[in-house]
Each structure stands twice: as C-alpha cells, then as structure tokens.
Amino acid sequence: MRSPRHVRTSKHGSAQHSSSQHGSAQHSSSQHGSAQHSSSQHGSAQHSSSQHGSAQHGSAQHGSSEYGLSQPVGSASATPSRGLSVALACAQGAWPHHDWPAPDDPYVRRVLHLTPPYRGLQDSGADVVVLRCEDPSVSFAELLKAMGDMSAPVIVVTPRRDSEAVVEAFRGGAGYLVEGDYCTCMLSSAVMAATVGHTYLSPTACAALRDAAQGMPGNGQATEQLRALLSPRERQIMELLSTGLGAQEIGLRLTLSEKTVRNNLSNIYAKLDVRGSTEAVLRWLGATSAVRV
C-alpha cells in the first residue's frame, strides 16, 4: 500500500480535526453535514465540531470523527456551490444506499458507479472516491492501484469493524465508515470533509482506532513518555486534534488564534518526529511505534 496517502499529507496537520471527543469521532471541519462534525476523531472519537451537521463536529456528540490531513491535490476546486462528483467503487449490486445522494443533497452533485477493476476511474474527474467493500485490506490496495496518480481522497465503507482494518485504512489516508454506524447525511458530510483534507471515521471506527492503541504492548508507558515531550499547551492541542477538531475549532476552544494553533502544531510535529496530523494522532494515541508510518 502506498505511503500515507499521496493524497493528503501533511500540510495542514493542523487543520485537521475537529471535534472533540465524541465518542463518535467526528471530525472537524466545517465540512460535514450531518456527519459533519468534526473531525477525526478517533477513538471514541468524538469530535465535536461545531460545524457539521449532524455528525457534525461540533458537537461533541457525534460519534464520528475527522482528522485533518493535508488537502488532496486539486481539491480546492471542489466547492459546495457547484456540487461534488463522487466515484462509487463497489461490486455490482453491493451498494447499500440506493437513495443516495438525495436530489437536494447539499454537497454531492454526481455519482459515477464503477465496478472492479475500476476501469475509467482515472478519467472520471471524481472529487472523492467512495470504496464499498467487504475486505478493505484487499480492496483498498486494489483501488489505490487503479487510481494511479489520481489525487482524490478515499472513503472506505465496509461491514468490517476490527482495529486492524481501520488502522490500515487510516494510515493510508482513507476515511472509514462502518456499515450500520452512519446515515447518508453523514456520508455526504464525510465526502465534503474529504475535499478539504479531513479524514472521517464513524463512531465504531474511532473506537477501533483507540482499541488498537490501547492494545499495543507497553503502549501506556511509551505513550506517556512521548506526551511528556510536549508542553501543557501542546498537549491540550493534541488532545483536541485527536478528537477531530481542526485548527480553527481548537483555537476557539482554547481562545487562541488559528495561526497560533498552527504554529504550535508545527512544533508538535517536530517533537514527535512526524510529517503531519495523521501520524501525530497515531503517535498520540499510541497506535504506531516511534518509526514513521
């Protein structure tokens, strides 16, 4: 599988997540409609952000989360005003939401259905790719191969909820929605969030990510030593970042300017020896070793 998703990497580390701890992990960023939330939030992931619809971030009540990764190349042109184009990659008849997107969907304008091996994907002009599959460990790698140099962000929709599958997809830069754990409004919000660099995780996926961190041998002590490298303010910022809040939302919570938050994030990345928010969150949660993912 490719390195942390060519598609997003660390520019913003900061902006990433929004929300604050909602068991559901939503993430941040204004991007999510209902599920909007707030970003990434892992673990319980809760995020909160306030700006997202239901899953919205803001609320800490949304179980989903989004992590802010760097924006995918070319994503800036995908604006809600014109509507987004989504490539739906799944086996024939396997898509569970035949009523999506709704005619009045605020974000998604067009959906192009593609079956394996996803011929024509690179020429589809899709802003986001939604992969519906039974086994992400196999299908995600196949999709990345079919995408080639395509820079569109990916959201995985699957019944699998184990930590291994979630961590692998998250490390690859993909959002992760567990079937039965989200609604179509959240799906649209996750799509919108992806275009501005956020990785959305549904509540169950967030919980799986935290479980993976807690289950690592010697994780507790190693994680505490890592966190000790950060100042009290930096630890506050990382705690909010890991729940899905983005730089703007973190600033509002801590009464700091967005620029100050981003400067702090740059220092945090240097101290943790990571390239961006995804790696930083994984390290913070103890879901990865000291080596770069």
Automatic annotation (TrEMBL):
Domain HTH luxR-type span(s) in chain numbering: 223-288
Taxonomy, superkingdom: Bacteria
GO molecular function, one term: DNA binding
Keywords for the protein's UniProt record, in alphabetical order: DNA-binding
PROSITE patterns: HTH_LUXR_1, HTH_LUXR_2
Region (Disordered): 1-80
InterPro entries for this protein: Sig_transdc_resp-reg_C-effctor, Tscrpt_reg_LuxR_C, WalR-like
Gene3D superfamilies associated with the record: 3.40.50.2300
Coiled-coil features, chain-numbered ranges: none
Pfam families: GerE (PF00196)
Comp. bias regions, Low complexity: 12-65
Gene Ontology annotations of biological process type: regulation of DNA-templated transcription
Basic residues bias (residue ranges): 1-11
Protein name per UniProt: DNA-binding response regulator
The species this protein was found in: Streptomyces ipomoeae
